[in-house]
Amino acid sequence: MRHLLPVLLGVAAAQVICPAVQAQVALMAGQAAQPLQGRFNSVPVLHSNQPEEVWGPGILVSTAPGSAVAETGETLANASYTFNGEFGLHAHHKYAPSDARRLGVAGGRRGQLTLAVIAINPGDREVTLRFEQGAVKNSFEAPYLANNLMGVIPQGRRPWNTGPGAATAVQMLRGSLDRNMPETVRIPARSRVVVVSTDLPARGIANALLKGRSDGPFQMAVVAAQEPSGPEDMLRVLDEGRLAPGRTYLSRLDEIRDRRVFSRVAGVAIGDAYQASLRHDLRAGALHVPLTTTSRHTFGTNELQVNELASRMVDSSLDNVGTYGVRFDVDLQLKGEGTYDLVLSHPTLMGRQFTAYRGTIGVTTPRGYEELHVGLRSGQSLSLSSLNLQPGVVTPVRISLVYPADATPGHLLSVVPSQQLLALRQQEQLQAEAREVMTRQAPPPVSAPPQPAAPAGVAQGFPEAPTAPSVRPRPAPRPAQRPVLNKTVPAARPTTARPLQTPPPVLPSVGWPPTAPAMIDPSRPYQLMRNWFGR
User: Fold this and answer.
1) 164 close to 142: Cβ distance less than 8 angstroms
2) Which of 204, 491, 500, 513 falls 20 to 30 Å from 220 in CA-CA distance?
3) H/E segment holding residue 6
4) Rounded Cα gap, residues 62 and 311, in angstroms
């Protein structure tokens, strides 16, 4: 064992020094990805996603100067920032009450929080906010069904309901403002206004994505109020200066600083859109580019598509690691000849299976613009569109999406020959058939043989007397036999061992003859076994 220690220590050291998760996409086996080299714009966006699970009422995040008290008793500084001009908002929270009575089980009444966005005007003149696009939805307006609508489905005018994150993202992708949203909000001088609010029942999810413009400086806060009677109760939460409970990452601040954990985002990120443009000659090989990469995996490109934070709560991630609510527009100029597929993939991460993407993607080709609902699992590669490239012609393709909160970042965007995708499908089919065969041929579980009946005189329901250690009994001496005179003993017939063509079957756990008394010839059980095998 001593000579293995250096090897084991070396492996452990490698795991510490190289925190990147091994990511695999079968579609790009033997091929390489290239960086997309896009850029974020400079629009500030307030992200309220830490804590994601809210246990009760309180402040979730505030950009006003000052601080608030956490459930641990610690005083935490606000993510101070003043907006002026273009701005955005992304909020995503679940209500998981710490009081089990508010879960609505056993016929009880389900508890409810109200999630509210508050605009604060610190100046001496009125400020007007004009909203251009966005929506606020909860999981009762847009139900979240874990295994619903997977694959690629054409998106109609009325989007599929696949969770509040996907529902708000499609509004942003289409550049439209939900009819329940105000177009204009006026904030009087040195005052505060509730901009929008939504109910958040226990075990529910709420998501907000908004884009707007102000004509003056203002600040924002997101609060959770417990069954408020009006806007005054929501503002009172802000005045009480207590943070909403559920900030589980307060005990892991060192891990956040060292980037050993991501946490969630509570702060202001710079950038609500990412644009990239790339020319590629497919005659030189397939195209693979990362989309929404993180430090965990970049597909070998070392490109991080994560925007920075201008301010953050102390338990927030160090940057906008999820890029939730960010619009991605990728323009490809492709040269080649023949039929190709535009493919979106997500890696297989250490064997885990989960829903990696569920939302709307817009694809623009020479045929026009098409919106697709995409439900992608980890380890999958799904074709978004088929491309028929003509020799000597540059074919433009644009991929547009607003990254939804129901997704896990770290995707790969590819343009590959259709035959390459077909080969992957055939390989997946063979693997599925092999798994099915292995499942059918798996031997039945071997259970313990039936226990012999209790000896006479031992009453059922009472503990047996302690048993002595098992000792192999000595065979009883055979009784003396009288000599047989003038009797020829036949010679034993030679036996030929039959070679086993297949492994012997597993002995059944039931169906054997009754247990033989102890005085029976000890060779009898082996005869029974031989008869059973030869039946």
Assistant:
1) yes
2) 204
3) helix 5-17
4) 10
pLDDT tens digits along 440-468: 876 666 666 666 554 444 444 434 444 44
- Residue 245 is predicted with a pLDDT of 96
H or E segment to which residue 15 belongs: helix 5-17
Partners of 342 in beta bridges:
385, 415
Query: Which residue reads 């109020």 in tokens?
Result: 225
Residues in the chain: 535
CA proximity to 68, closest of 244, 316, 251: 244
Q: In this predicted structure, what is the pLDDT of residue 91? A: 97
Pairing label, strands 44-48, 86-95: parallel
Residue bearing tokens 């220590």: 9
Tokens 């540059």 sit on residue: 394
What whole-number distance in Å separates Cα of residue 279 and Cα of residue 286?
12
Q: Which pair of tokens denotes residue 264?
A: 């969630």
The amino acid that residue 349 corresponds to is L
Residues 6+ apart with CB under 8 A from 75: 67, 68, 69
Confidence (pTM): 0.77
Q: What is the DSSP letter of 369?
A: E
Please, is 420 exposed, middle or buried when counting C-beta atoms within 10 Å of its C-beta (0-12, 13-18, 19+)? Answer: middle
Contact 306, 328 (CB under 8 A): no
pLDDT given for residue 432 in this prediction: 83
**Exposed/middle/buried for residue 239 (C-beta within 10 Å: 0-12, 13-18, 19+):** exposed
- pLDDT tens-digit profile of 186-234? 999 999 999 999 998 899 999 999 999 999 999 999 999 999 999 999 9
Alpha-carbon gap, residue 273 to 399, rounded angstroms: 13
- CA-based Rg of the chain, rounded to a whole angstrom? 34
CA distance 504 to 400: 60
